[in-house]
Amino acid sequence: MESRGLEVTSSSEIHKQNLIGALWMITSMGAFAIEDAFVKVATKSIPIGEVLAIFGLGGMLVYAALLFLNREPLFIPEILSRSMLIRVGFEVTGRLFYVLALALIPLSLVTVILQATPLVVVAGAVLVLGEKVGMRRWAAIVTGLLGVIVIVQPGTEGFSELSLLAILGMICFAGRDLASRVAPATIGTSLLGLYGFVSVLIAGVLYSIWADDPFVIPKTEVSLSLLGAIIFGVLAYYCLMKAMRTGEVSAVTPFRYIRLLFGTALGLLLFGEALTPAMLIGSALIVISGLFIIWRGKR
């Protein structure tokens, strides 16, 4: 009887942790969507490279302050490890393509395409890290990627070359996540956050040099948008790390797809965007495929 009581308590505690983890994940996805909206607003008034640079600098300073207050170092030798350098490279290119996509195409479309990132991560884990995936999960990966094709509609009148920016950003983010999996365990969450925003700053500076855009002093409204992007970007990253360290990964991860609802809702309400049948069908294929992969992985 005593053993059964312990099992009930343990099961109840796991359920509680999963619920808390899910709430962290939902908060994170909502914050990411709001960050995207602020960035999109800012890119309408000042150059894209400047938006990236200010956003990266702001987030970098926040994480540097957190590390300083916690008496943690701002640099350790592992930062220069091969996996971390690869991570920074993917972060720089991914952020650049993603913000370009936010500036040039609808927020809802960018958000939908981004949801394919976990599928590409699983495929990359098989091809690069040697993980094992059965035929059913391979079929789910292919189905999800077909969903991206349905959304983009190549070869039709609805196709826009600019949507490739979102796809490139999504692929780079998947590469970043794969590099994070093999990054040294001694690199903590705050340190990863610091160098993640350093990567954004680098992307902004490089793009500004390439585009030869002059620096524009942001007006009050734009400055508030940039401040909002920094605040919600830092909050989103913090909540995401808390989510992935609370409860079971298989129980918490599916709530990543709630970002689809937040992103499309903001696109409809703030920017007057419209959801097309292709976007609805494609996003359904992506979400169903992702949830199936998580379910099979748990089994």
Element-by-element helix/strand order: HHHHHHHHHHHH
The general outline is: globular
Note the beta-strand portion. Answer: under 5%
Output the number of helix runs.
12
N-to-C span: 29 Å
Determine the mean pLDDT: 87
Percent of residues in helices comes to over 70%
Query: How many beta-strand elements?
Result: 0
Radius of gyration: 20 Å
Q: How does the helix and strand content classify structurally? A: mainly alpha
Low-confidence stretches: 1-9
Tally the structural domains: 1
Tell me the major beta sheet. Answer: none
Précis, in short:
The chain has about 300 residues and is mostly helical. The chain is built from twelve helices and no strands.
Write the layout of secondary structure elements.
Blueprint: H1 2-43, H2 48-69, H3 82-104, H4 107-114, H5 117-127, H6 135-152, H7 163-181, H8 189-211, H9 220-244, H10 249-252, H11 258-271, H12 277-298
Helix pairs in contact: 1-9, 1-11, 2-8, 2-9, 3-7, 3-8, 4-7, 4-11, 5-6, 5-7, 6-12
